[in-house]
Amino acid sequence: MIPEMKQRTAELQRRLGDAGVELAVLTDEDSIAYYAGFWGYLGVEFGRPTFLLVPRDGAPTVITPLMESEMVGDMTWVEDIRPWEDAGANRWDAVLGWALDEHGPAAALGWERLKVSALVLDFLEEHVGRARFTDVAGLIGDMRVIKSPAEIEIMRQAGQVAVAMVEAGKAALGEGVPEYEVALAVLAGGTRKAAEFLSDKGWEHFISPTVHNLQVLQSGRDTSKVHRRSNVRRLERGDPVYMCFCGMVNFKQYKLGFDREFFIGAARDEDARVYEATVAAQEAALSAIRPGVTAEAVHEAANEVYLSAGFAPGYRTGRAIGCSFLEQPELKEGDKTPLRAGMTFAVDGGITIPRTFGGRIGDTIVVTDDGYECFTPYPKDLCVV
């Protein structure tokens, strides 16, 4: 992936030149990973920001905490790495200030405006002022819309990790089982599968197979709460169990959207009706996907199914996904972006009956020349465990 990252950076520099930007100051972890190939373990939430400075001409610069500089140096292809320290003359704001000053007091700067933390924003406004900055988030987002063959292959592997997670979670289901035990099984299943794709050599030496983050999992009437995490509740006969893996699959920095739902012992008739309408809506959306169709039209296909089944329309049927959980375009009303081969989406179906039941389904796909390929092939038929 390193040669591809270098090519991406060269293309970013070309686009910066076209936009009249002399230096891009990148702080978003996903963008830094996309261009420079590394990510930190202590980020700005610890008061420890990392920066990737990409000039219109010349070599990029990384500014990172001293304690991570050795690891960063081994991960990235960028040669100019400038460590900073927590105290003394080499604090992060001083090191960043010196780097910015090298480009002159009138240099036109670029940033991803909405991704700059308050900590960094305060410094930049005081040191250089907002007037010198141009928002380059759209420019960067456009580069990430179409995935390369190498990116698509990583996302295929991530899909296999996701399927291993749901299989492990399903195997752990049963009456009397607490939700957190299902979540633990999911973590173990995904971790073991991810490890199959990794070595301890080169860049992969720094990629952990360990699946983390809190499992989105609800059971019973709580399935209407969508994003509640697993707790100590024990599963009962007739319970629906919803598992969302959207925040869990993060393989080689690529994310997926993936959701499945099961029923313990039996499914209530009304729950089954809602679930089947959910699956039908997602299938309608998937059937509409092909190059030239607008993102909005895919959303409309799902909404036709919801309305015909007597349910309210959905607010969004999916989103582009890749290095970030949310990319562009989105499958929603008003987004008239034509789909193109190489775009990757999380495509969802969902119906919420407040305080009663939530039917959920989700997969990640890539648009192909004549339709789509699913990265998360796993049965969606109503499944009673």
Describe this entry's structure for a reader.
The protein has 385 residues and is of the alpha+beta class. The chain has two domains: 2-143, Creatine Amidinohydrolase, Chain A, domain 1 (3-Layer(aba) Sandwich); 149-374, Creatine Amidinohydrolase (Alpha-Beta Complex). The chain contains ten helices and 16 strands. The strands form four sheets. Strands 4-3-2-1-5-6 form a six-stranded mixed β-sheet, sandwiched between helices. The radius of gyration is 23 Å and the shape is globular.
CATH topology descriptor of the largest domain:
Creatine Amidinohydrolase
What's the CATH H-level superfamily name of the largest domain?
Creatinase/methionine aminopeptidase superfamily
The best one-word shape is globular
Measured distance between first and last alpha carbons: 41 Å
**pLDDT averaged residue by residue:** 95
Helical segment tally? Answer: 10
CATH architectural arrangement of the largest domain: Alpha-Beta Complex
* Beta-strand proportion: 15-25%
Query: What integer value in Å does the Rg equal?
Result: 23 Å
- In total, the number of strands is 16
Main beta-sheet annotation: 6 strands, mixed
Oligomeric state of the chains in view? single chain
Fraction of helical residues:
25-40%
Low-confidence stretches: none
